[in-house]
Amino acid sequence: MRITKEDKNQIITEYHRHENDTGSPEVQVAILTHRIQQLTEHLKVHKHDESSRRGLIK
User: Fold this and answer.
1) Could you give the CA distance from residue 17 to residue 32 in angstroms, rounded to a whole number?
2) What is the domain-level CATH number for residue 19?
3) Residue 3 near residue 34 (C-beta atoms within 8 A)
């Protein structure tokens, strides 16, 4: 359920403002959005996974 290096690098490449940008709001929001989408898909399959559900809410 972790974001892979390849996924993270692809997101950074797509949303970065300059070459070494990893901390701009656009990049951070895109990474968090990807993580939320992963958790949402996981919870659709594993409906009783309460620890992941709590992680999504926090």
Assistant:
1) 17
2) 1.10.287.10
3) yes
**Stretch 2-13: mean pLDDT, rounded?**
93
Distance separating alpha carbons of residues 55 and 1, to the nearest angstrom: 12
C-alpha distances in Å from residue 24, one per residue of 16, 17, 55: 7, 7, 23
Q: Based on the structure, what is the number of domains in the chain?
A: 1
Residue 12's domain comprises 5-57
Share above pLDDT 90 across residues of the chain, in percent, rounded to a whole number: 62
User: Tens of pLDDT along 26-49?
Assistant: 999 999 999 999 989 999 999 999
Give the contacts of 26 (CB within 8 A, at least 6 positions apart): 15, 16, 17
